[in-house]
Write a structure and sequence with these properties.
With 128 residues, this protein is mostly helical. The protein contains 5 helices and no strands. It starts with 20 loop residues before the first helix and ends in a 5-residue tail after the last helix.
Length: 128
């Protein structure tokens, strides 16, 4: 059982002791940077997709303003980290980003001009 699972809702272990934050911190230090970057990118993609209304209950969660912010952050992350994570990891992230940018354009009542959509200041204009 992990230290995190052994704590109660108040952050205390069953014996009343504080959790072992040293071992929990050490765990994240063992994760390679490429994995952290791609995990963050996937979370941004997932959240943007939900805010674009692409989830199961699409229209319930649709919020294009939030989607724009998430896509912008995703584009910045992918652009800034592409050389660090390599094309093997960056290529699928770029494909996902482009799909989200196109979905945003399609979902917008008044689409942005090419080059003005979310993330396009980093990626350049996106065309279908």
């Amino acid at each position: 059982m992990s230290d995190a699972a052994a704590t109660g809702p108040d952050g205390q272990s069953p014996e009343g002791q504080s959790p072992d934050f040293d071992s929990m911190t050490r765990d994240i230090a063992d994760v390679p940077a490429v994995e952290v970057i791609t995990t963050v990118a996937v979370h941004l993609m997932s959240s943007a997709a939900v805010n674009l209304g692409l989830a199961e209950e699409g229209e319930t969660h649709k919020d294009l303003d939030e989607a724009r912010k998430l896509i912008q952050a995703l584009a910045g992350l992918i652009t800034a980290s592409a050389t660090e994570i390599g094309s093997y990891h960056a290529a699928p992230l770029r494909d996902g980003l482009k799909s989200l940018q196109l979905a945003f354009r399609e979902a917008s009542v008044v689409p942005d001009e090419p080059g003005q959509g979310p993330g396009e200041k980093y990626t350049g204009p996106v065309f279908g």
